[in-house]
């Protein structure tokens, strides 16, 4: 069973995913900027990010936090995200580092 803080973290990232989906739907740069600030603030406090790379910026296509990856020649997408981005997300999570 999840502890209260695990379940609060899961709710937090669920909310972040909903915001990211809305930002994507409306192509809302300000909302993406806010997602990045919120993500960086909570990860600076030691909250781990979920796996998958959605909450780190992409080093390949420069998609920002929360934004889906953009098809880039020579860099095939693995599901919705570049493998390099997923790797960066795993590194951030393993080191409990803030979102770059
Ligand atoms: Zn990308």
From TrEMBL:
Xref: InterPro entries: Phage_Znf_bind_put
Domain DNA-binding phage zinc finger: 25-90
Stated name of the protein: DNA-binding phage zinc finger domain-containing protein
The organism of origin for this protein: Micromonospora coerulea
């Amino acid at each position: 069973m999840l502890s209260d803080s695990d379940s609060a973290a899961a709710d937090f990232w669920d909310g972040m995913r909903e915001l990211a989906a809305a930002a994507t739907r409306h192509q809302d740069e300000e909302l993406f900027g806010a997602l990045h600030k919120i993500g960086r603030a909570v990860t600076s406090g030691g909250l781990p990010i979920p796996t998958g790379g959605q909450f780190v910026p992409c080093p390949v296509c420069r998609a920002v936090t929360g934004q889906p990856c953009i098809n880039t020649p020579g860099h095939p997408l693995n599901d919705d995200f570049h493998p390099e981005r997923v790797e960066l997300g795993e590194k951030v999570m393993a080191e409990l580092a803030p979102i770059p």
